[in-house]
Write a structure and sequence with these properties.
Helices cover about 70% and strands about 0% of the residues. With about 160 residues, the protein is mainly alpha-helical. The longest helix has 27 residues, at about 80-110. About 20% of the residues are buried.
Length: about 160
């Protein structure tokens, strides 16, 4: 890029500030891009399934098992830096917020049961995302990652009409 170390530090301050800026860019170009794109899907339930499916595919398709910058930061840097921990919690909150919004829309559209607890299910789905990303670092197979996600997604297939005749 033609930048030298003093130029980088003049622009960002220090290595930590550069890392925080890189983490924010990562969130903007991966996390928020995915959320924005999937929120446009006509089916809210399918948007949730697509989000999880993309995470499984990206995780299983990483031959070097580098993982996700957000998850790696949560595990490596957040425990030692309160500001970075707060940023990671915020990014996780955006994912959970996506799930909450899509779950509410799916309930309103009759795609999933009204009895599903939106907050708890959104947190479960966030947990699945984190677990898939972490397990993929250990070399878990695509089949293993899919089997982790499958039961959580099955909750969304609960019949919406529970009346008995």
């Amino acid at each position: 890029m033609g930048l030298n170390v003093p130029s980088v530090y003049n622009a960002f301050g220090d290595k930590r500030a550069l890392f925080v800026a890189a983490l924010e860019r990562y969130a903007a170009t991966t996390l928020r891009e995915r959320i924005g794109r999937l929120e446009q899907m006509p089916s809210a339930r399918r948007a949730i399934e697509a989000f999880i499916g993309e995470i499984v595919s990206r995780s299983a398709g990483d031959p070097e098992r580098r993982g996700c910058l957000l998850i790696n930061t949560a595990l490596d840097a957040a425990p030692h830096d309160a500001e970075i921990a707060a940023a990671v919690r915020g990014y996780f909150g955006e994912i959970e917020g996506f799930f909450k919004g899509r779950l509410r829309a799916a309930q309103a559209g009759g795609e999933i049961a009204a009895s599903i607890d939106v907050r708890d299910t959104a947190r479960l789905l966030l947990g699945v995302v984190v677990a898939v990303r972490v397990l993929s670092r250990t070399g878990a197979s695509r089949a293993s990652l899919e089997s982790l996600a499958r039961p959580a997604l099955a909750l969304l297939s609960v019949p919406t009409d529970t009346h008995t005749g």
